[in-house]
Amino acid sequence: MYKKFTDEQLVELLKSGKDKAFDELYFRYRDLLVRFVYLRMKSIAISEEIVQEVFTSIWERRKTIVIQKSFAAYIYTSVRYMTLDYIKSHEVTDQYIQEVLEKNTVSQTSYNAIEDSIYYDELQKAVDEAASLLPKKSKEVFILSRIKHYTNKEIAEELNVSIETVKYHITYALKFMRTYLGEFN
């Protein structure tokens, strides 16, 4: 029914409470946006999550949303900024996780070194605890990838699964770790 409408007409219908107009915008742009984000993130799961967050935001603000140019420009800009925010918010945690996995000791002599040492010890314990809570296959993939530094192909061969399955488990494990280690952000 709404396929013949322009984006701008759909936005106006959305503002007046027509949820089917939202559905049409969603299905019109979702796959394009996921591919757009995937070019940057290299993870389908994360790409889908970011796109979903943008559409959720549009839905929540549907009655007051103001689009100055085209809907396409608006949605792509929103997704771009959400992607950058995602990268910034997860960069610090990923960096700490990687440092803990690569370093066993901190060798500095200042007072900050003691704080850092305590922090890294706590983080190491939290990483170990989080890893122990992962499902068996995700834990195996995580250990092979992040601790033993296997490539995705090597992991796939070792565990006799597809590379896509390996990518899924890595994405799942990292997302779980980020959530579990949220207090370290």
Question: Mind explaining what this structure looks like?
Answer:
The chain is mostly helical and 185 residues long. Helix content is 77%, strand content 0%. The chain is built from eight helices and no strands. Helix 4 (71-102) packs across helix 5 (111-133) and helix 5 packs across helix 8. The termini are far apart.
Protein traits:
single chain; 185 residues; 8 helices
Average pLDDT rating? 81
- Low-confidence parts, pLDDT < 50 over ≥5 residues? 104-111
**How do the SSEs run, as a string of H and E?**
HHHHHHHH
CA(first)-CA(last) distance:
46 Å
Count of helical segments?
8
Helix content: over 70%
Cα-atom radius of gyration: 21 Å
Q: Count every beta strand, where a strand is a DSSP E run of 2 or more residues.
A: 0
Strand composition percent? under 5%
Largest beta-sheet characterization: none
Alpha-beta classification? mainly alpha
Shape type: elongated
Could you give the topology of this structure?
Elements: H1 7-15, H2 19-41, H3 44-60, H4 71-102, H5 111-133, H6 136-147, H7 152-159, H8 163-180
Q: TL;DR?
A:
The protein is mainly α. The chain has helices at 7-15, 19-41, 44-60, 71-102, 111-133, 136-147, 152-159, 163-180. Helices cover 77% and strands 0% of the residues.
